[in-house]
Amino acid sequence: MRCDVLVVGAGPSGSMTAKILAEEGVDVILIEQKKEIGYPVQCAEGVNKFLFRDTGIKKDPSFIEQRIDGTVIYFHNEEYVLTGEQWKGYTLDRRRFDKFLAENAQHAGAKILTSARAIGLKKRESGWIVKIKLSGKPMEIETKIIVGADGFRKSVGKWAGLAKEWRTDEYSKCLQYTVPCQDMQEKNKFHIVFDENFPSGYGWIFPKRCKVNIGVGVSPKSNVKKALQYFLKHPITKQLVGDNVVINEIRGGKIPTCGPKSKDEVVGDGIIIVGDAAGMVEPVTGEGIAPSMISGISAGETIAEAIERKSWSKSMLSIYYKNCMRKRYIGSTVGESMGYFLELKRKIYDVFSEKSTPEERKKFVIENLMSF
Hints:
It contains eleven helices and 20 strands. It has helices spanning 12-23, 51-55, 94-108, 155-159, 224-232, 235-241, 289-309, 314-317, 319-326, 334-351, 358-369, and strands spanning 2-8, 28-32, 46-48, 64-68, 71-75, 78-82, 89-92, 111-114, 116-124, 127-134, 137-148, 171-180, 190-194, 202-207, 211-218, 249-256, 267-268, 271-273, 328-329, 332-333.
């Protein structure tokens, strides 16, 4: 099998890359190791309200679970209500949302293979030979350019010699329960809880139509299961959700919280890395859907131009990184916003701890969270 571009991973970044390429008439194949795109879900499903503006995707009622009008931050008996535009958003149905994006790519002309797992690759003068297993059967795909949209594992980047293993200070472990809840209190808010039992992370309660996502993100050295069990009994969880929590679904995973990786770790001759694999996750909240999609758009645009020029060297593809950093994201650009959030991340865990006083926290919230 041959193509101009092979995209590995049909999450938001991969599907956006494939869509942009297909719209430009590029012969693109999108492969996904799961049998069903978007399932099982490994996400808290909360997004910033600017996602649709910044990515050009139209809101569709099929994947919007709950409109969010603000965010509440809790620390012990303190409560901070953030109602600025940057703290509003939506809770999605990620299963439907991911399918929606993949279908957009397919309708544009991309070929999609599910149950297709990349297991290795080999560099050739004219491109790459990618080894995959399609429904368990070994086969090869010959491609000029490969896009690694394979998430936290970033196997494509590692095989190509670009990516390094994540350091323990570059990611968080997450675990979440989805539970039925018809009458959650303050259902139009994201709820974020800081606590000493969530080191370098936080607990979240994100409402959906008839369910709620209750989860925690903690440092890699912490016991995430123990942290989530503690959170289920937390006063805020009981206040918002109640005592009788019935678990419908368990989700877990790891997310990068270090911000975008360097250009040399995401671009090479005939290869671009996007999404979580490229560190395209907002480092404070861990929201990666929007920045990952933006990276996919930038990759698609860059590769389409490279195919037209018949040049996919590292220098040509490096335009991807520069253009991605310049894309609009929340109130600024990807580069500026990510830099700001990284600096904010360095402060926020100290502020929401016993190291600071309530007066210092209130001042921090007013100066840094209400106004960014």
